[in-house]
Amino acid sequence: MSDFETVKESFERCGTSDGFYDTFYELFLSKSDEIAPFFSGTDFKKQKKLLKATITTMIRFPLDHRGTQTTLAMVAKTHSPNNYNSYNIKPELHALWLDSLCETVKKHDPDITVELEDKWRNYIQEAINTILSKY
Length: 135
Hints:
Blueprint: H1 3-15, H2 20-30, H3 44-60, H4 65-79, H5 92-108, H6 114-133
Helix pairs in contact: 1-6, 2-5, 3-4, 3-6, 4-6, 5-6
């Protein structure tokens, strides 16, 4: 099985686990006092759907650079501290986002291993690097 299939199947297992997205936001919001203000007034029902779509795109990124570039460029545009009307997300907060995601996967994928977590980190970090390169 390819790394892509392994990570994709892990994400599918997480998606069937109750509370995956709630766990993610609990962990992420607790990582830094700088994070919570970005989510004041957020409709978390919509935000969770957006998170699912973003993670799906990030997992697909190594296999589909061209197809996912547009989506990641939009994420960069809305998050970049160098873009007027963006959320002004500092680059270092992306590391906390990735840590929160991996901690969430560990809690919700019964088949998680150290090797699988490394695959998650590699896939998502590559997408994060692309987002940051567009800052």
